[in-house]
Amino acid sequence: MPYFSFKGRNTRGELITGTLEGSDAGVIADQLINTGITPVDIQASQRILAAQVPQWWRNLGRRNATLLDLMLFSRQMYTLLKAGVPIMRALAGLQESAINPTMIEVIQDLRTNLDAGRELSAAMRQHPEVFSYFYVSLVRTGELTGQLEDVFLRLYNHLEFEKEIKDRIKAAVRYPTFVLVAMAAAIIIVNLFVIPAFAKVYSGFKAELPYLTKLLIGFSNFMVANWPFMLAALVAAVLGFRAWIGTRRGKYQWDKVKLRIPIAGKIVLKATLARFSRSFALGLQSGVPVVQALSNVAQVVDNDFIAQRIEQMRDGVERGESVLRTAVASGVFTPVVLQMIAVGDETGELDSLMREVADLYERDVEYEVKTLAQQIEPILIVGLGGLVLVLALGVFLPIWDLGQAALHHK
Question: Which pLDDT value is given to residue 402?
Answer without folding.
Answer: 63
